[in-house]
Structures are given as structure tokens and as C-alpha cells.
């Protein structure tokens, strides 16, 4: 089989010819039809993240090994099953839950495998979907998807939409809340749809790109703020009758965005940090108790969240936006375009 792999950080991905894996036990081999291109793939490609004081947090220090086939948003059809795998048949349309844990830590025990102490996520710690086939460790991580659900759209549910859903759930939005969604890329747009669908709160979308803000409006944002052209703090205070935001979901989560988020929080507000832009933050400690706001980190979502999402998408309540399609040989181009902010919505690779 062919796979587009990161052989060495920062070098173009290599399309390699690999042996097609054979499923054993409860494993299932899935023929990949669509694999979403995610921001975290860029970090795998670059070999790390920016941490405190410009320090570089290397992916290899947290268990990532190269060469690696990225791709954790995987949709396709069942190819073959191990002898203990059950409930699926060849050519059945499936979506893969990629946030796999080792199964024994406290998080795994309560169904939060996405927060496992020793994660084995597909396309991060093991080979993922930028390939013709992917080996899924157990049939338990496969979800059947309806024929009507577009395969490219369904792929984006397993990270882009799942992460947005996890963040929306963390904020526990109420109908009259003012919620600011920072970053109107693939995740932000999905969060707008989900926040609208589950809460009916007033949504203010913030970005530095007018085209993305236009898409935010089309996806249900009540107001938009271009934080490059206007002061984000002033704009949010004006839009909320000087009260500030009840919740902020920050899908950029860089020093610059979070510094302004902090300034437009209402008392008791929740600031949900989701993006992986990185950097650092200076906090006034006394205002934490006096303003009683909460900082919440949110990472992907659980298998049960994904079951709910597939249902929402199948019923047309949310509509994932796929804007760019690439071939396996264009993986480097896909990542470069995403890094440069040139993908509106989500890009997918069709191996
Ligand atoms: Zn992702
Ligand atoms: Zn675990």
C-alpha cells in the first residue's frame, strides 16, 4: 500500500510503498477513502510546539516516533477483519475513532480514552490515515455511517467536529449566554453550528480574516469581529452591553488571543482553551478569585461524544464543511496550505 509519511520533521512528506497490514485478533483493516488534514498534523510535521518562553516542545519527547504516517480523521470502508473482530462486514462504510488509549488508566476506565495516560492515538503515536489502508486496533473504535453521509464530511467528525463538540460541552452554554468563538477555521465554524444547535446562545465569531468571518456568519454567528481591524476587547464589550462574554472558546489559543480573551470575560465566565498555537500567558492572580472565572483545557472528545456527533450529522443538524481535496502525493501541499491559513473549512486527502 502507499502511505504519505513524515520521515523527518520539516522535510516534505514521502509517499512510501509499505506492506499492507493484516488484521489479527480484534483488529480491523480499513480502506481509507478520506483522511482529514488537521492543524496537529502540522505540529507532527514540524516536530513540536512552542512552549513557555519560546521553548520548543518536541513531539519525540512525548512518544512520537518517525517515520510516521499522519492522519487521525479517517473514513472509509471495512476491508478485512481479524478472527475475533465482529459486527462489521467487508465494504461497510465506517468512521474511525482515533483517540485510542491503552485501556487501563483511570481516564480509560471511565470512557475518557482521549485523555489516556499512555495514548496510542492513530496518526499520532501509530500510523494513521494518510495511506491507502489503516489498521484499527479493535472493531470497538469503528462507527457505522449512513450512506447519505458524505465520506469526506464524515472524516472531519472524528477530530475537527469532535474537538469543537468537546469544547462546547465544556462550556456548558446556556440559552442567553454571550459566547465568543475565537478562530473561524474548520473547528471554529463547527463550534458555531454546534453551539447554535445545543444552546441557542448569542455567538460572536472572531478572526483576522474577513473571508472566514463571512463563513462564520453563514454558519450561524450573530456577530463578527475582525480583531486585526478593530480592538477585540472594545468590540466584545460593545456587543455584550458592557457585560463581557459568559464563555469564550479559543480555537487559536495563542498568547495574543488569550491575552485579549481574559480582558473581555464576564464574572463567572469560562474560558475554554482548545487551539494548539502555543505560547505563554501572564495572569493577574488576584482576579482569578475575585472575578471567579474558570480556565478550562479541552482536548478532542470521547467515543460516546462521537456517537452523538454522528447522529447530529446524519440528521443534518450539523454540516461539516469540506473545502479542499488532495491526493496522497499532495500531502505536503495540503499541510503547507493549512499552515498558511489558505484552507477555508477543512481539507481532506483522498488516498
Ligand atoms: Zn486533529
Ligand atoms: Zn488509558
Structure summary, number of beta strands = 17
Approximately how much beta-strand content do the residues carry?
A: 15-25%
User: Helix content range of the residues, please?
Assistant: 25-40%
Query: What ions, cofactors and ligands are bound?
Result: zinc ion
Mean pLDDT: 95
Topology order in helix (H) and strand (E) letters: EEEHEEEEHEEHHEHEHEHEHEHEHEHE
Largest sheet: 7 strands, mixed
Radius of gyration: 20 Å
Instruction: Kindly report how far apart the N and C termini lie.
Output: 10 Å
In terms of structural class, how would the helical and strand content be classed? Answer: alpha/beta
Give the count of helical stretches.
Answer: 11
How would you sum up the global shape? Answer: globular
List the uncertain runs: none
Tell me briefly what this model is:
The protein has 351 residues and is of the alpha/beta class.
Amino acid at each position: 500500500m502507499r502511505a504519505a509519511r513524515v520521515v523527518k520533521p520539516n522535510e516534505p512528506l514521502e509517499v512510501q510503498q509499505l506492506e499492507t497490514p493484516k488484521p489479527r485478533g480484534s483488529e480491523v483493516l480499513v480502506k481509507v477513502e478520506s483522511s482529514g488534514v488537521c492543524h496537529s498534523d502540522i505540529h507532527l510535521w514540524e516536530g513540536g510546539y512552542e512552549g513557555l518562553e519560546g521553548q520548543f516542545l518536541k513531539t519525540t519527547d512525548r512518544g512520537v516516533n518517525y517515520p510516521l504516517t499522519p492522519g487521525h480523521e479517517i473514513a472509509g470502508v471495512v476491508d478485512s477483519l481479524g478472527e475475533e473482530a465482529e459486527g462489521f462486514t467487508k465494504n461497510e462504510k465506517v468512521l474511525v475513532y482515533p483517540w485510542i488509549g491503552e485501556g487501563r488508566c483511570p481516564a480509560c476506565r471511565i470512557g475518557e480514552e482521549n485523555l489516556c495516560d499512555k495514548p496510542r492515538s492513530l496518526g499520532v503515536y501509530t500510523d494513521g490515515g494518510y495511506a491507502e489502508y489503516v489498521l484499527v486496533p479493535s472493531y470497538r473504535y469503528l462507527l457505522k455511517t449512513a450512506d447519505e453521509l458524505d465520506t469526506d464530511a464524515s472524516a472531519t467528525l472524528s477530530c475537527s467536529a469532535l474537538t469543537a463538540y468537546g469544547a462546547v460541552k465544556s462550556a456548558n452554554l446556556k440559552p442567553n449566554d454571550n459566547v465568543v468563538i475565537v478562530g473561524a477555521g474548520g473547528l471554529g465554524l463547527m463550534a458555531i453550528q454546534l453551539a447554535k444547535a445545543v444552546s441557542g446562545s448569542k455567538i460572536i465569531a472572531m478572526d483576522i480574516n474577513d473571508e472566514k468571518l463571512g463563513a462564520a456568519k453563514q454558519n450561524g454567528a450573530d456577530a463578527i469581529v475582525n480583531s486585526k481591524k478593530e480592538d477585540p476587547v472594545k468590540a466584545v464589550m460593545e456587543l455584550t452591553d458592557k457585560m463581557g462574554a459568559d464563555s469564550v472558546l479559543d480555537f487559536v489559543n495563542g498568547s495574543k488571543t488569550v491575552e485579549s480573551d481574559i480582558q473581555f470575560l464576564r464574572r463567572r465566565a469560562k474560558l475554554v482553551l482548545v487551539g494548539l498555537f502555543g505560547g505563554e500567558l501572564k495572569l493577574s492572580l488576584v482576579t482569578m478569585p475575585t472575578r471567579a472565572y474558570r480556565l478550562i483545557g479541552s482536548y478532542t472528545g470521547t467515543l460516546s461524544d462521537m456517537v452523538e456527533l454522528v447522529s447530529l450529522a446524519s440528521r443534518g443538524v450539523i454540516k461539516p464543511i469540506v473545502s479542499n481535496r488532495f491526493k496522497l502525493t499532495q500531502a505536503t501541499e495540503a499541510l503547507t496550505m493549512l499552515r498558511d491559513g489558505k484552507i477555508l473549512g477543512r481539507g481532506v486527502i483522498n488516498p
